[in-house]
Write a structure and sequence with these properties.
388 residues, alpha/beta, Rossmann fold, Dehydroquinate synthase-like, alpha domain, six-stranded parallel β-sheet, binds nicotinamide-adenine-dinucleotide, binds fe (ii) ion
Length: 388
Amino acid sequence: MNPLYSFQTAGRIVAGINSLKQLHAHLSIFGEIKNILLVSTPFFKEHSFNDMITEQLKTLGISYDILAEVEPEPTISHIEDLYGKMAGGEYDILIGLGGGSVLDATKLLSVMSTNDMSLRSMVGTDKIKQKGVPVILIPTTSGTGSEVTPNAIVTLPDEELKEGVVSRYLLPELVILDPILTLSLPPSITAATGMDAFTHSFESFISNKANPISDMFALQSMRLISRSIIEAYENGQNIIARHDMLIGSTYGGMALTSAGTAAVHALAYPLGGKFHIPHGEANSMLLPHVTRFNLDHIEERMAIIAKEIGVIKDGYSGSQDAANQLIEQIENWTLKLNIPQDLKAFGVKREDISDLAIAASKVTRLLNNNPKTLSIEDMENIYKKLLN
Ligand SMILES: NC(=O)c1ccc[n+]([C@@H]2O[C@H](COP(=O)([O-])OP(=O)(O)OC[C@H]3O[C@@H](n4cnc5c(N)ncnc54)[C@H](O)[C@@H]3O)[C@@H](O)[C@H]2O)c1
Ligand SMILES: [Fe+2]
């Protein structure tokens, strides 16, 4: 275990069914507000959730603009375009309403507004010099945990890779966690984002930087997600399951803020950057294979997870058995969730594997957290397992 560890999170979290209706009651923490920018996607522009926010702003006499143009898995140039569209507006607060792509875009627009530096030069850890415009984040997927992480992920098209901007200035002042907002998530996005959240907690728990604080959030996150992911997928209107998934994903974000994700995420980044495989699906495909690779280093930790989430069948014979039963459970979920298991479906060919492995090997920020060192050949072998 790491001898020193730390934890930081959003300034205030307001959670529960219909909590979005209480947004107005929490705006006083920002002092006087004249003008707000609401950042989202075309999907939310005409949506009742958008109105639920704007009606509250109107009642308070706060003026606002709407920038409902964020594309999924944003590239650097897309965020720069968005920044160009907001330039000239003097905003006291930015509100991000959407999935991880919107939340990350909002966090970046906030710091781009106050730092005289290019977005490209913000990529990396602690590059941002000063805090941004205050931010409110309202997630509508249960996956990334971005609402509580100091990270924003951008695609660098030239390098066909996703990279992280990491800075404490990316943490928001206020988060609203309302599971009602996730009821409209289609099953495939419920599945992919839910497995992303599970992977955050799983990797945080086996990370070299795992610690008592991250363990607490990671284990509770895995309990919540494992009991509700199939129900949320099969019966999307079940608000209890949606609530479990949303809190589970926020806890996943809290766990990874303290402990970091590891090789699954490192190998997933080039699949997103080069082949545009949705982040959650890439993680979900890689998780069983990377876990088998890591197994001899993480058997005891796996047995703890297996016990905590109740996957061990009667008469199991020790931690190795428990760990294997956990891998089987993860594979069963991906089958039930209809998550693809073959990279071919995304246009990946055998001759791409070497480049993918080289790109993944550059994600040292996450590979350093992995309990077992991966050579380029190890990474190639893992990708090969996903090309049947
Ligand atoms: N900052 C972090 O800590 C962090 C962590 C993990 C991943 N990420 C990044 O987040 C992005 C992925 O975010 P995501 O998985 O939440 O997906 P997303 O934000 O890309 O959204 C996926 C799709 O779902 C739609 N959608 C969102 N909410 C909906 C709802 N309630 N009903 C119907 N449709 C809805 C969106 O319009 C979009 O088409 C990636 O860029 C990934 O790299 C960030
Ligand atoms: Fe992730």
